[in-house]
Amino acid sequence: MRTISIILPFFKYKHYFKECLQNLAQSTFKDFELIVVLDHPTEDIDDLLEQYNSVFDMKVYALPEGVTGVAACRNVGIQEAKGAYLYFLDSDDYVLEDTLQNMIKAIDHDVDMVYGMINHTWNNKANYLHKIENKEVDEEDQEEREQQRLNRLSDFISFSSYEKDEQQAKAIFYTMDNRKGIRTFTVLGNLYNRDFVVRNNLKFNENFRYYCDMTFMCPLLEKLTSALQVEEAIYVKRKHNDPINEPALSQEENENRFNERCDAVEYTRTLLKEEGVVRFCLDRKIVSYFVSQMAKKIRRSQDDLWRTEYFERMAKTMDGIRPEVMNRYKRNSRKMVAYLQNRDLKGVQSCVRRKLGIKKFFRIFKNKNVLFKLAYYHVYSKKPIQENTILFETFMAKNYSDSPKYIYEYIAKNYPGKYKCVWALNDGHEVPYGAEVVKRFSFKYAYYLAVSKYFVFNVRQPLWYRKREGQVFVETWHGTPLKRLVFDQEEVTSASPKYKQQFYRQRQEWDYLVSANPFSTKTFRSCFMYEGKMLEYGYPRNDILYWPNKDQIAKDLRKKLGIPEDKKTILYAPTWRDDEHYGKGEYKFTLALDLKLMMEKLSDEYVVLLRTHHYIADNIDTTGLEGFVYNLSKYDDISEIYLISDICITDYSSVFFDFANLKRPVLFYTYDIEKYKNQLRGFYIDMNTEVPGPLLYTSEEVVNAILNIDQINEEYKERYEEFYKRFCCYDDGNASKHIVEEVFK
Length: 745
Ligand code: C2G
What we know:
This protein has 745 residues and is α/β, with parallel strands linked by helices. It is built from 28 helices and 23 strands.
């Protein structure tokens, strides 16, 4: 007999399932059987099953026609299991190498349940471990939380001691009470003694799609006679970062969900003792759900169901709560529940208002920055829209550059006085042609977000922006995509895990999206799931590369920057790395290019123009390289820098798509390409065969390439031509003109 039977239901998302199996194969504990139960999958997973059949002692079952759901899968698993212990594993989650081993090691007597820890993540194992190693989980914060948990535990034990001994109370606390919210009411992460489960005939209720866990877990906890905690046994529960295309069960939208929640609670109650502590916990969870989540919906939701049918349904469930449950709630929550039980909607609403009002007050008190948002919602958004006002923003107001700059200048030159132009710029520096400058996230900024008719942004609008009817949003974006973006990106490591969900809403507010080439058009449609109007005229930011006076501009700029007349220039413009950051929007950059070596070998002929990405917070130390390295990281506009660059070196930045308009040589210093491609981002085009220059892996190779640049030009001539035709085909110096004529008719 195997020690553990792992029960693994599979419904969809093969790539997660694959990862789950890969991680399980790395488990140091091997004495388990794997019971895979298929819930009518539509993806072809035969290859996976075949591959892992030889790795595990694996049995595969399929649910019969007409039967579906995770509850049914798990019941089949329980029925077929032969192991001493049961372990439920979901196909989109994973365990760490030592999870199972640690649990089994700790068992020194016969126990009904061994409960481990659940850690939540949005990432695959490599990125999850990276975050843990880099202590992105704040230790102080963790200690504080652990302390709070212990306080709550001792409170819980003293309160529940009338029925259970301390060990069991602790088990109930950890598996029911301590796991945040009713949503994470889960059977995952624990080992269950199979004998105990079978003896007590414990099963999942198959009528419930979302809330079946409580129907198994609650009676189990009530019958528990012994339990053991193993904190080092971590179950990694993964949230899906794409709830639009790949929702997890917990993210699925289904109008039946709410009623099911109430039904499941009511059904589970029938399995429990009226005055038992498990019943107490169950009731407490539904009360907490009501006062913290549902109440908000009763007040704010556009959907009237929350004030009618759902309100009634919740009231019915709430009629059944044990009276002592309410003793532990604050006065306002107690009143809210009492009003609900009396079917008094107005009463509930007034309690919610009070609760939210107090919350808002404390938020303002703690962070005065929210004041401008309140002004935005409650004052500015009620003012009329100003028909001729345009708000411009580039890279979160860090500089005056990119396509919004060129669109603005075109308007200023060709329609003087017609529009009131406003620029968001954090350092408040002046811009030509007299636009008003406002700081991002200030009262004035909030004001113009509310009243401007037009918006020209090269990044996303703030999350709190709500587009008003009549407003026109032009999104220029900021580069032809080489690295995978948003919905085409499997892992989201650097942005908020809710990135895709937020993006989905934000892109619906765009009326126009600028595309520099047919490739971008196609890619943006997929990666942004964008269905709106595409402006396919090239990038306004590249107009300058075609202007007739571009040589004069270059000459003036070289002079302004003090670049010696007799030297050629090498622009080094790398991008940022998703996994190397200090805080939000602040990234580390370690220079991997040996500038000293370059100086030694190249300084007779060249100087280097160093330009880091605007996300990079590190100031690159160029001591000892004076006169050879010019750090232009703070210079507003990279398009102007292209004009004075003879060679461009980048890595995975989109800069080369733009620079190629000049038909000057491009080199790729891709020292970490494997990691970037496989772990961090992935690419849309093959860097080995499609980019217009060589991939170089060491500083020596870079130096040699520059010394032999004519040879490289010759070697890459054909590929460069093809690349130019494919990516620079729209740019002709008139993108701003076309866009302005189309948008501002
Ligand atoms: N940029 C710059 N200096 C750098 C790197 C980038 O000025 N060292 C500017 C360029 O205009 C570039 C833009 O920032 O085109 C975007 O930078 P990327 O390195 O391509 O990275 P990212 O901001 O992630 O945008 O579709 C494009 C993608 O969204 C990439």
